[in-house]
Amino acid sequence: MSDIEINGDIPAEQPKSAPEDRAIEGPFDETEANPVRPYVDLGGVKVLPREGLHLRLEVEEGTKRVVAIGLDYANSTLQVQPFAAPRSSGLWHEIRAQIADQIARQGGTTTVRDGSFGPELLAQIPVAAGEGQPGQMRLARFIGVDGPRWFLRGVIAGEAAVDPAAAAQVEDLFRSIVVVRGSTPMPPRDLIPLRMPASTAGTPTV
Q1: CA neighbours within 13 Å on the CB side: how many for 167?
Q2: What is the Cα–Cα distance from 11 to 108, expressed in whole angstroms?
Q3: Which residues are CB-contacts of 73 (< 8 A; sequence separation ≥ 6)?
Q4: What is the pLDDT of residues 104-121, one digit of tens each?
Q5: In terms of Cα–Cα distance, which of 125, 172, 154, 123 is closest to 17?
Q6: Confidence band (pLDDT; 50, 70, 90) for 14?
Q7: DSSP H/E element including 22
Q8: Is the link from the previous residue into 197 a cis peptide, with omega within 30 of 0?
Q9: How far apart are CA 77 and CA 99, in angstroms?
Q10: Which backbone phi and psi does 165 adopt, to 5 degrees?
């Protein structure tokens, strides 16, 4: 799902889009997270282990750079990516429109709706058809939260895209994520570097 890119020109000012209780309920900035919780450190994000959660690193071919974190949970998948953002303005409103445009060019459709984190995109995305098979569509939810100097994007697929009970579990998982922006200057929309956990060899499972 990381083939939906976020780049291009940035408007001068866009309001931040985030739940009013974000600083208390998450997704968290590193300065807001509980320091004693046993997070899995993935560089730009930290993930709190929980029963039934499996973690995958999505790696870009060629560069071998980790470009997204995949979380399998509640018969669903949640892909997360943290990006640098301006201190006073947000990215989600502009990025949401850009994603909708890209999906439309692929032959898919999107609907904007009000979700647990604010505006989100419910998308039907074409799946490459096998030989002799008609094209199919997969359902996905694109969610986004603007934090302090970062933007966290999530893509939800599987049961959590359609089932309220699964959606509540995956949304709680998204809320528990900690974004580690760091102090290194970065242009807005640059991916905050992700990495494999230092203590784990191979793709980790939590």
Answers
A1: 12
A2: 26
A3: 50, 52, 53, 54, 169, 170, 173
A4: 999 999 999 999 999 999
A5: 154
A6: confident
A7: helix 22-25
A8: no
A9: 19
A10: -65, -45
**Residue type (1 letter), 109:** T
Contact (Cβ atoms closer than 8 angstroms) between residue 58 and residue 194: no
Among 64, 55, 83, residue whose Cα is nearest residue 180: 83
Report which of 52, 45, 58 is spatially closest to residue 1, judged by C-alpha positions: 58
- Alpha carbons 6 and 195: distance in angstroms, whole number: 20
Place of tokens 């647990």: 116
Q: Bridge partners of 134?
A: none
- The whole-angstrom separation of Cα 188 and Cα 205 is 31
CA distance 139 to 142: 10
Confirm if 160 and 74 have CB atoms less than 8 A apart.
Answer: yes
Contacts of 9 (CB under 8 A, 6+ apart): none
Residue pLDDT, tens place only, 60-70: 999 999 999 99
Q: Which residues pair with 40 in a beta bridge?
A: 47
Q: 106 to each of 22, 101, 204, how far by Cα in Å?
A: 33, 9, 33
Per-residue pLDDT tens digits for 55-102? 999 999 999 999 999 999 999 999 999 999 998 899 999 999 999 999
Spatial CA neighbour of 204 closest among 41, 88, 89, 80 = 41
